[in-house]
């Protein structure tokens, strides 16, 4: 892959063999986020798990204290009294059959889908198109729930879902380069501590192997995990 001169200039500012203190690393990320747009900040957590085994599949949700900096578009599929509850919570789209039809026709102008349990029988047939995009509702992530109002508000406030990929890595956006350093540190610590809580009980060996921070067009910065947990 070819990179710009700016990228290689930024790489020189980073010691690839060093694990930076979390505050120092975040400050360095902000200095090397020099694109002309507001870059997303992503964390990569390399875990010592084997996702082929069900008891080592790490997945969950977390509400970032400062959000991700992205406007979250929420679609609620429900019926009856829950429609009003979703609308009062400021869901972007609320309905059922009309949106199921739109999705079948290729419409995906939303970031989170929340459904009430009574309509899951209608949503199930969308699994083949929602699954690959990571949009399929799931009770474990809180997107299949009777408490529609709080689910919408949490999503709007910065609640994100994450899961380990087949290589044992979790990738997640935790903010924007325009966030101040304290906001990024707060979000990063919240994310890491949540993943630590989800450590499989029977896992042997090192659980969290490596923590890396990067911006959209910037190089990766290795973060000392103990400075995060402390």
Descriptive notes:
There is one protein chain. The chain is α/β, with parallel strands linked by helices. It has two domains: 5-68 and 160-229, Ribosomal protein L1/L10, rRNA-binding domain (Ribulose 1,5 Bisphosphate Carboxylase/Oxygenase); 74-157, Ribosomal protein L1/L10, domain II (Rossmann fold). It contains nine helices and nine strands. It has helices at 5-11, 22-32, 82-88, 97-104, 120-123, 127-130, 148-157, 181-197, 225-229, and strands at 40-47, 59-63, 74-77, 93-95, 112-115, 159-163, 169-176, 208-215, 221-223. The chain has a four-stranded antiparallel β-sheet. Strands 4-3-5 form a three-stranded parallel β-sheet, sandwiched between helices. Strands 2-6 form a two-stranded antiparallel sheet. Helix 3 (82-88) links the parallel strand 3 and strand 4 (93-95). The longest helix has 17 residues, at 181-197. The protein starts with a helix and ends with a helix. The model has no long low-confidence stretch (mean pLDDT 92).
Any chance you could write out the topology, listing elements then pairs?
Blueprint: H1 5-11, H2 22-32, E1 40-47, E2 59-63, E3 74-77, H3 82-88, E4 93-95, H4 97-104, E5 112-115, H5 120-123, H6 127-130, H7 148-157, E6 159-163, E7 169-176, H8 181-197, E8 208-215, E9 221-223, H9 225-229
The radius of gyration is 19 Å
Outline, from the CA principal axes?
A: globular
CATH homologous superfamily descriptor of the largest domain: Ribosomal protein L1/L10, rRNA-binding domain
Helical region count? 9
Structural class: alpha/beta
CATH-defined topology of the largest domain: Ribulose 1,5 Bisphosphate Carboxylase/Oxygenase
CATH A-level architecture of the largest domain: 2-Layer Sandwich
- How much of the polypeptide forms β-strand, as a percent range? 15-25%
Oligomeric composition of the shown chains: single chain
CATH class of the largest domain: Alpha Beta
């Amino acid at each position: 892959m070819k990179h710009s001169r700016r990228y290689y200039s930024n790489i020189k500012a980073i010691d690839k063999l060093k694990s930076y203190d979390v505050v120092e690393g975040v400050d360095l990320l902000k200095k090397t986020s020099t694109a002309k747009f507001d870059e997303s900040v992503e964390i990569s957590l390399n875990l010592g798990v084997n996702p082929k085994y069900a008891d080592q599949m790490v997945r969950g949700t977390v509400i970032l204290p400062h959000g991700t900096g992205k406007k979250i578009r929420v679609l609620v599929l429900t019926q009856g009294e829950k429609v009003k509850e979703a609308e009062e919570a400021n869901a972007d789209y609320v309905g059922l059959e009309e949106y199921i039809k739109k999705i079948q026709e290729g419409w995906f102008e939303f970031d989170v889908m929340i459904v009430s349990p009574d309509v899951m029988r209608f949503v199930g047939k969308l699994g083949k198109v929602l699954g690959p995009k990571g949009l399929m509702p799931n009770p474990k992530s809180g997107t299949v729930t009777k408490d529609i109002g709080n689910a919408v508000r949490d999503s709007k406030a910065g609640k994100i879902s994450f899961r380990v990929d087949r290589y044992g890595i979790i990738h997640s956006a935790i903010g924007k380069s325009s966030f101040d350093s304290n906001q990024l540190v707060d979000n990063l610590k919240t994310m890491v501590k949540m993943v630590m809580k989800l450590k499989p009980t029977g896992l042997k060996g090192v659980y969290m192997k490596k923590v890396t921070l990067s911006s959209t067009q910037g190089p990766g910065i290795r973060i000392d995990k103990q400075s995060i947990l402390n």
